């Protein structure tokens, strides 16, 4: 594992990590290598997921929401178990409805999480929501405001990408329809990153298994892309630090 970090931060400095995400598998794609690295360094990791992702299928007749919710919940717990994370909390909202949740209610849930876990680093989506997904953007706003209200005692990192990553994968993302709004895809220069974490083979093997645990979402993608390309796709994780002046929006 090689890593590029701003200032003097190292993985071993992160004694506690909190990830707050919208749907099961968000945490796997964007932060499972980071979570695994923190756990391997004996750090604490907690994860919160706003919804059970019950509408995450193009075939709701075969996978009705009540059935898919249970499947995805189990997949998430199994994937976190592979990393050694047993501190997980559901925020209990409906998939696709986060913009309808009163802002103060969402913020209060994240404030409670921060106060309970006292993380050195919080990771979540940036204001762009990575793909422009409204649920992702809403979670980002909740977390940003909760971080502000709790005194910014730890660092807040947003998942991002680099120009090089976008150049390599832009056509695939467009083909898969991942970007809901292509104008908001996050791009951060490498020199501005808080962390650029490249998986070595061992860590990549683990991340691959974590992603495969989310089979309802990833099996079709792996079949479409082939295992080698699927593994390489998110073999690097990128994070940029929120600044003290960051607003929830």
Structural description of this entry:
- The protein is built from nine helices and eight strands.
- It is an alpha/beta fold and 249 residues long.
- Helix 2 (65-83) links the parallel strand 3 and strand 4 (87-93).
- Helix 1 (26-40) packs across helix 7, helix 2 packs antiparallel against helix 7 and helix 8 crosses helix 9.
Strands across the major sheet, in which order? 1-7-8-6-5-2-3-4
Q: What general outline do the C-alpha atoms trace?
A: globular
Distance between the termini: 35 Å
How much of the sequence lies in strands comes to 15-25%
Tell me the major beta sheet: 8 strands, mixed
Rg (CA only): 17 Å
Mean pLDDT: 92
Number of helices in the DSSP assignment: 9
Oligomer: single chain
Low-pLDDT runs: 1-8
Helix content: 40-55%
Q: What is the number of strand segments? A: 8
Task: Give the tags.
single chain; alpha/beta; globular; eight-stranded mixed sheet; 249 residues
Topology, element by element:
Elements: E1 2-5, E2 16-21, H1 26-40, E3 44-51, H2 65-83, E4 87-93, H3 103-117, E5 121-125, H4 129-132, H5 134-149, E6 155-160, H6 163-176, E7 195-198, H7 201-212, H8 215-225, H9 227-233, E8 236-241
Parallel strand pairs: 2-3, 2-5, 3-4, 5-6
Antiparallel strand pairs: 1-7, 6-8, 7-8
Helix pairs in contact: 1-7, 2-7, 3-5, 8-9
Provide a concise account of the structure shown.
The protein is of the alpha/beta class.
